[in-house]
Amino acid sequence: MKVLVTGATGFIGRLVVHRLRQAGVELRLASRQPE
């Protein structure tokens, strides 16, 4: 599965990204701040 996460560097986005990575999901991240 591929997932696009918007707001990936925000408070909630970081938690979502962490959980999805643990689940082995392929991610694409979008953010206003390229950190």
Helix and strand arrangement:
Blueprint: E1 2-6, H1 11-22, E2 26-30
Parallel strand pairs: 1-2
Give short descriptive properties of this protein.
35 residues; two-stranded parallel ribbon
Model description:
With 35 residues, the protein is α+β, with helices and mostly antiparallel strands. The protein has one domain. Helix content is 34%, strand content 29%. The longest helix is centred in the middle third of the chain and has 12 residues, at 11-22. The chain is globular. The protein starts with a strand and ends in a 5-residue tail after the last strand.
Number of domains: 1
Give the ordered list of helices and strands: EHE
Give the CA-based shape: globular
Helix proportion: 25-40%
Question: In terms of per-residue confidence, which ranges show pLDDT below 50 for 5 or more consecutive residues?
Answer: none
Task: Give the C-alpha Rg.
Answer: 9 Å
Quick gist of this model?
34% of the residues lie in helices and 29% in strands. The chain contains one helix and two strands; from the N terminus they run βαβ.
